[in-house]
Write a structure and sequence with these properties.
Length: about 350
């Protein structure tokens, strides 16, 4: 929390449309627009890492682009340090960007290919500070050292660097203005597995050293387990589960979260072969024609008739997290997934509709 006791970032009931039916000037919506983010709310406290997780196409990247005001949002609020970003001028927003930075997913496209790395890192300092050329040069060398590269990289082009080195440069650029909040949009998904752990450790060290707050976007729950204090699980533009990561990852309260966790691979091949699996039916529905009621009901083993016509609200489950499911208590009562993965764990029960009929 900030000194005032409020979160550093608060997103409330955010709704975002995309497509040719969205008019950028006044953010009006035409008939051809698609509703990609649906009433999303979350908060991030100072110094913590909040993870936003979900399958590709669930709206994660659109959400963070709206938070950064890179695209317009149609309703809701984004409050950064008590400032409503939706109501500030472009000039004010530019000054706020010193404290609000982003590391994009692809290190190969997020850096200018024809500029030296020293120039790439110096540009934010030229635009937002009155440092002299010498002071900027010293700051660039310090940034390169902070991310484990060294001063010699200032004279390289991005094409002369590996993917992991490019992402370190992108992280250095995000840190150039000493921000308070850094949004990490799938920062390691484009990297080799051997490099990912190094980048995650670097991010963790920088957070400890600088007191950074991270908004970490990923589809990789294994990363979330060790890196995030809280999680927001998204499905088809909505948050379906939200709360402390250790609770959600040990005792999920939504069938979608449980299925994601059950699909995580286990390094031990013998345990992997014998473990119980939770099958998820069908494919992710199209955002153009989302299902009625609970959007997860066509793929859910718990679904009953009520789920097809009524949309559940985010409510506190028995596990103490917010869950968008009529049967969150029953889901949370299942054996913990870290127990269910052992070879002698009882099988996952088959859910029959009549067991959870509610009036």
């Amino acid at each position: 929390m900030t000194d005032s006791g409020r979160p550093i970032l608060s997103v409330q009931d955010l709704v975002v449309y995309r497509g040719k039916g969205v008019h950028q000037g006044n953010s009006t919506v035409g008939k051809d627009a698609l509703r990609v983010v649906e009433g999303v709310s979350f908060e991030a406290a100072a110094g913590e890492t909040l993870g936003i997780v979900g399958e590709s196409g669930c709206g994660k990247t659109t959400l963070v682009h709206a938070v950064l005001r890179l695209i317009p949002y149609q309703s809701g609020q984004v409050i950064f340090e008590d400032v409503d970003l939706g109501g500030v001028s472009e000039r004010k927003l530019r000054s706020l960007r010193r404290d609000l930075q982003v590391v994009f997913q692809d290190p190969y496209s997020s850096l200018h290919p024809r500029k030296l790395i020293g120039k790439i890192l110096s540009e934010p300092l030229e635009l937002h500070t009155d440092l002299s050329a010498k002071a900027r040069e010293r700051a660039v060398i310090s940034l390169l050292n902070d991310v484990g590269l060294g001063a010699s990289f200032a004279q390289r082009f991005p094409r002369e660097c590996s993917g992991g080195q490019r992402q370190r440069v992108a992280i250095a650029r995000a840190l150039a203005l000493r921000p308070k909040l850094v949004i990490l949009d799938e920062p390691v998904s484009a990297l080799d597995v051997s490099i990912r752990a190094q980048i995650i450790e670097l991010l963790a060290q920088l957070q400890r050293d600088r007191g950074l707050t991270y908004l970490f976007i990923s589809h990789d729950l294994a990363l979330m387990r060790s890196f995030c204090q809280r999680l927001a699980v998204m499905y088809l533009g909505r948050v379906v589960e939200y709360g402390p990561s250790d609770v959600i990852l040990h005792r999920p309260s939504h069938p979608y979260t449980r299925s994601l966790l059950a699909s995580m691979p286990i390094p031990d091949p013998e345990v992997e072969r014998r473990r119980n699996r939770i099958e998820v039916r069908g494919e992710i529905p199209s955002i153009r024609t989302p299902p009625s009621g609970c959007t997860f009901h066509p793929r859910c083993n718990y679904a009953v008739d009520r789920c097809q016509v009524s949309e559940p609200m985010l409510e506190v489950s028995d596990a103490g997290v917010l869950s968008r499911c009529f049967f969150s208590s029953e889901v949370a009562a299942q054996p913990p997934l870290d127990d269910a993965r052992s070879s002698d764990a009882p099988p996952e029960p088959v859910v029959e509709e009549h067991l959870f009929e509610r009036s």
